[in-house]
Amino acid sequence: MSRPADVKYLKSHEWARRDANLVSVGISDFAVDQLNREIVFIELPEKGRKLCQNDSFGVIESVKAASDLYAPVSGEVVEVNESLNDDPAAISDDPFGKGWMIKILPDSPAEFDALVSPIDYEKQVAEEAH
Amino acid sequence: MKIRFPVQELEHLFRVQRTGMQNTPLHDWHVAHNASMTDFHGWHMPLFYTGITEEHNFTREHAGLFDLGHMGRVFVRGSDARKFVDYLTPANVASAQTGDVQYSFLLREDGTAIDDITIYYHDEFVLLIINAGNRERDVQWIKEKAGAWPDVTIDDRCESWSMLAIQGPSSESITSKVLGEDPSALAYYKFLYYKESRFGEMVISRTGYTGEDGFEIYLSKEQASLLWEKLIAAGDDRIRPIGLGARDSLRLEAGMPLYGHELNDSLTPVHAGFNRYISLDKGDFLGKKSLESLVSSGTDKKLAGFEMPQRGPIPREGFNIFSPEGQVIGQITSGIFSPTLQKNVGMAYVEPAYAKPGTEIQIEIRNKRYPATIVKRPFYRRKRP
Fold first, then answer.
1. Percentage, residues of chain B above pLDDT 70
2. Contact assignment for B51 to A69 by CB distance below 8 Å
3. How many CB pairs lie under 8 A apart between chains A and B?
């Protein structure tokens, strides 16, 4: 799939999208592939939780594995995509859209700017796919 | 995102193939059909082709084809073959007729399981089917024990033969089309032996590891690949190759044990609740004394099935089980989100007082406890026509 141009990434495959004053977070299609596209459970944080960049904010489980999810930016969790609890498959069906997990009110804009760019992420994925 | 469990099973995603891995005759077929391959006890095997859940559901609805070439096959021959197997295993050998299959074990003197096996009884041989992970040590054990029996010969066909399984409601019609033989008269846990079939010397049994109707077929390596292709072709859209991922979830729903999980070097069949497969009233056999005393004294833990009422994190192997009062009372051996039942189920060893169906327990997952209930196995039982 072609990846959207308006997101940035952590090296660990979480994406972040600036959305007015918030940052939405999810995982990339590459991460979904690593989970064999079979997501059976997701554990997301409560609204109001304060995160530092690279903190684990939740867990995603596929048939065979559980994986930690990391925060691309520091800030407060202000929205949680509760619909994923009943329909975790939405993450594999539409990882950059309906599969969004949380929205963070960021502490500083600098963190977002320093994330991996779409072009660099393409390179990283091409390397890891080998 | 960082995958943290279970690392060894995900290795295949990151690793170039290890040297020294063994392949079945169908290895190149799997790779050519885009299977995601994994290391299973040193065997390079398909984990899935299109997806574990999809393959699981397909087997329940139509038919799944499994490459089981990595499992072991040992023919015991000679005039004392039956007597030897009677001594080697706790099985009820005396009751077995030609054409019968029995589930049994290879046991040490202390009753612990070297492996769980199936036994095929025929006038000309007794055939033992053993697990891939235990192949070398099982064969060594069998040969060593047979050394004391001059009228027993061991015909090890682990290398020269292979094994396939076809499982699911469409198995019978597809299999009869391909074999040119009609296996429909074959009852559950019975087998037929052909000296000369369309595919050469062959054993076919109505057995399996999925909870579905189906067959397991043993034949030469060369013929196995041919039979595989023919079954795929004859089944049209009603048959698909199935990887080890779905094999595991299918057997778990069917409540069947997997060596290395529900049984291992420190557990006996009594722990696992398999007393009905242990013939204590027959003559001496390996492990008899230990099993006798365990049966009368009881074990310190028992294998039990559990289910979780709410959708939640997956209960996985090694997670602790707690009593309602907060004491650790056991550990999980296998657990999944069941594709058929749409809930979390699993098996666990728990203290005997908590092993009764209906008992409420708690499972700790990442420092949080979730409610679960002990239930009877199997979790899934197919509708019979």
1. 95
2. no
3. 70
pLDDT at residue A2, as a whole number? 82
Pairing mode, strands B126-130 and B113-121: antiparallel
Interstrand relation of B239-241 and B63-67 (parallel, antiparallel or unpaired): parallel
B245 chain-A contacts, CB cut-off 8 A: 36, 63-64
The pTM score is 0.93
Q: Do domains B1-297 and B300-375 have the same CATH topology?
A: no
| pLDDT of B11 | 42
pLDDT tens-place string over residues B183-208: 889 999 999 999 999 999 999 999 99
Is residue A118's pLDDT more than 60? yes
Q: Compute the nearest-CA separation of B51 from chain A (Å).
A: 7
User: Is any Cβ of chain B less than 8 angstroms from the Cβ of A65?
Assistant: yes
Q: Is the dihedral of CA B224, B230, B236, B238 positive or negative?
A: negative
- CATH level 3 topology of A8-128: OB fold (Dihydrolipoamide Acetyltransferase, E2P) (2.40.50)
A residues 71-110 lying closer than 8 A (beta carbon) to B: 85-86
Asked if A64 and B2 come within 8 Å (Cβ–Cβ), the reply is: no
pLDDT value for B182: 80
Domain covering B300-375 in this structure, CATH number: 2.40.30.110
Determine the distance from the C-alpha atom of residue B52 to the mean position of all C-alpha atoms in its chain, rounded to a whole number: 17
* Rounded Cα–Cα distance for residues B13 and B36 (Å): 8
Scored b (16 or more CB within 10 A) or e, B148-168 reads ebeebebeebbeebbbbbbbb
| Position A51 confidence tier, pLDDT thresholds 50, 70, 90 | very high
In CATH, the architecture of B1-297 is 2-Layer Sandwich (3.30)
Percentage above 90 pLDDT, chain A? 88
Domain coordinates in residue numbering, chain A: 8-128
Cβ pair B311:A41 closer than 8 A? yes
